Amino acid sequence: MTPRKLILSNQQSPGDIVMLTAAVRDLHASFPGDYVTDVRTPCPDLWLHNPFITPLGDDEPDVEYLPCHYPLIHQSNQRPFHFIHGFIEYLGERLGVRVLPNQFKGDIHLAEEEKEGPFAGMEQIAGRPFWLIAAGGKFDFTIKWWDIARYQQVVNHFANRLLFVQVGEDGHHHPALEGVIDLRGKTSLRELLLLMYHAQGVVCPVTLLMHLAAAVETPPGRPPNRPCVVVAGGREPVHWEAYPYHQFLHTLGMLECCARGGCWRSRTVALGDGNSNDHPHSLCADVVGNLPRCMDMITAEDVVRAISGYLSGGLYQTLNS
Questions:
Q1: What angle do CA 272, 278, 279 make, to 5 degrees?
Q2: Which of 11, 6, 98, 9 is nearest to 55 (CA)?
Q3: 110 vs 91: CA distance, rounded Å
Q4: Whole domain around residue 293: which residue ranges?
Q5: pTM for the complete prediction?
Q6: pLDDT in tens, the chain (321 residues)
Q7: Whole-angstrom Cα distance, residue 73 to residue 81?
């Protein structure tokens, strides 16, 4: 049988594209040799060295162009599926096959020379174990932001024990932390993948970094699953976002606004920038100070406790261990 040639497209954020990498992997695992796949996404760095990608021309004979979505998200409060199932279910429906999830993570590939070569911040890190920290996010979903002062409390608590490297994309909201190596706006997406490879752990909100923490392999001699503490609140259902080896700090079921599932709202307050996420139905229904109540309920001590749990098990190093 001649393999079907597919060009899969999606123009969403990098975190979404990581989920698409899983769907491509699982399509090939479910039907070896039945498909030839290429992609059109804004994040070519996420597909580099991917063995399931074959360059296809848009005008090549017999090529099928398939925009990819994950409508399963609209049932995430009712059905027991993870984000990783979203593109998988959609692809299966469009192709008329049953694609089976193969692994509980995205599919990111690093070349051996990349792993051994230089990476952003290497001279400052100087071979020490480090944790990546993202203390902000995009302006379209400010409801995911936590208090920068609480992130700072976490960093201060582990002073002289953990080295934190702060990352974040230019143009997004990433206030500076003290006592960290500052790589905000200084890495390409590929460089971020290499940082993740070398990182011992991650602290972040619900964002790309948590998906990369699961998707990017760990170096030889390290535990296979990277620690990740996610400050999540009540926006998204736990089963939709959380990975098995992460500490996902949530408030689902604790407040009226998230008693029946994630609220899926976008912003804490309106920013007045003309974005549709300023619509009243997209704004947080329960604000305390400058935070959604669900995020305000998560304390610096909660994050410290989650990180300390990883350290107490003896699998992970501190600066003085």
A1: 135
A2: 6
A3: 25
A4: 120-312
A5: 0.97
A6: 799 999 999 999 999 999 999 999 999 999 999 999 999 999 999 999 999 999 999 999 999 999 999 999 999 999 999 999 999 999 999 999 999 999 999 999 999 999 988 888 999 998 899 999 999 999 999 999 999 999 999 999 999 999 999 999 999 999 999 999 999 999 999 999 999 999 999 999 999 999 999 999 999 999 999 999 999 999 999 999 999 999 999 999 999 999 999 999 999 999 999 999 999 999 999 999 999 999 999 999 999 999 999 999 999 999 987
A7: 9
Between CA 204 and CA 207 the distance in angstroms is 7
Rounded Cα–Cα distance for residues 145 and 277 (Å): 15
Structural domain includes residue 319: no
Domain match, 88 and 159 both = no
The closest alpha carbon to 253, from 261, 263, 244, 245, belongs to 261
Say if residues 227 and 130 touch (Cβ distance below 8 Å).
Answer: no
Q: In which residue are the tokens 């400050």 written?
A: 231
Residues 255 and 148 in one domain: yes
Whether the CB-CB separation of 235 and 143 falls below 8 Å is answered with yes
- Edge-to-edge, what's the strand order for the sheet holding 4-9? 35-40, 4-9, 63-67
CATH at 164: 3.40.50.2000
Please tell me the distance from the alpha carbon of residue 5 to that of residue 318, in angstroms, as a whole number: 49
What distance in Å separates the CA atoms of residue 116 and residue 254, rounded to the nearest whole number? 46
3-class secondary structure per residue, 40-100: ECCCHHHCCCCCCECCCCCCCCCEEEEECCCHHHHHCCCCCCCCHHHHHHHHHHHHCCCCC
